[in-house]
Amino acid sequence: AYNIHVNGVLHCRVRYSQLLGLHEQLRKEYGANVVPAFPPKKIFTLTPAEVEQRREQLEKYMQAVRQDPTLGGSETFNSFLRKAQQETQQIPTEEVVLEVLLSNGQKVKVTILTSDQTEDVLEAVASKLDLPDDLVGYFSLFLVRETKDGAFSFVRKLQEFELPYVSVTSLHNPEFRIILRKSYWDSAYDDDVMEHRVGLNLLYAQTVSDIEHGWILVNKEQLRQLKSLQEKVSRKEFIRLAQTLKYYGYLKFDPCVTDFPEKGCHVVVSAGNNELNFQVRLPNEQIKEGSFKVTRMRCWRVTSSVPMSNGPSGSSPGKSEVKLELAFEYLMSKDRLQWVTITSPQAIMLSICLQSMVDELMVKKSGGSIRKMFRRRMNGALRRSDSQQAVKSPPLLDSPDASREPMAKLSSKLTSVSLRGISHSSSANDVGTNDFHGNYAFEGIGDEDL
Prior knowledge:
- One of its GO terms (molecular function) is phosphatidylinositol binding.
- Residues 381-417 are annotated as: Disordered.
- There is one protein chain.
- This protein is α+β, with helices and mostly antiparallel strands.
- Helices cover 31% and strands 27% of the residues.
- It has 13 helices and 20 strands.
- Helix 9 (197-212) packs across helix 11 and helix 10 packs antiparallel against helix 11 (235-243).
């Protein structure tokens, strides 16, 4: 059997025969010329080396399927992952009550089936709140971890290939919760949401929460104006004023480490307004702030790594702290691209934010509507946008910084899927050259625009 990790978390355990069944089903539906080649059957028992070779081949196969916009967005592929997730966690299909939080801490209890996928649960929450159908696409469910001060640390946006009830209960930790939050970046879309009473209330609750947690910056005078509007229950005016404030609509991440402008700098990253904002604490304790526009990122990737053990006395990789990194290649000036790396347990959530910013930009560029963006259905299956295709780039060095400690790269964990042989340690060289996320919103910008 093989462990499948999706977005850095153990998702399910499957056998070769189950994956072969999936492959045959995809071939039947989409044709042999569309589906990647599958590792062949062997008559005799596999040697340990052959088992490891097959694991690597299966991992490449699953990543290739996931990165193909047609196959990766297909109901066949996603339902296979959902069913395998449910079987692995041994959770029978039954009616349960799931608690979903709103930004203000209010709990919404919905009766769902354990086998309900993310979109079903989102619709159940919307229905319980009386949120109209055409506004559901503006919101998403997020897996968060509650911190000691009552704030939330975002783990990831729940995806179409998972069952939210199974995802949250399989973590066996009450700190993990599911929260409903807006999932668009352009504040111009607030107008659509504010047209409806429930949409307005949800947006208001999120804005108040973001101000209370210090995600949105306010000075004393602005705070006084906001409090006055709260007392008058002028919610629309409250949001209009908040829209003018710094970091409105941004997601703030936990403090982490970056190699920009120099190695080992502590940084607080926020995502919003089509950029990643850095507040960097330099080694001399000086704080510097800067932003990286998503349109100037050529590509990015998420990798997980463990420090190399120093011979037999070193700790084994299984016990080492796994490091997650997001690295993006940025157009610093005309003809000068530079890699910037963020080391953070939230690297996957950061990459999901980047991807959704790009998707939103591409939808706007093509004149599409955000109302349909998350709810496009083709033959009953969610279709991923073209911007999710991986771009074939030359292989990356382990790090832009050659002096860094040696790392054993374990796996790319973007929207790709990685497999782990249960009885084998992970290979140090299983990062394909294909695991970059190409950015279709990337623009060549000259010096005069910098």
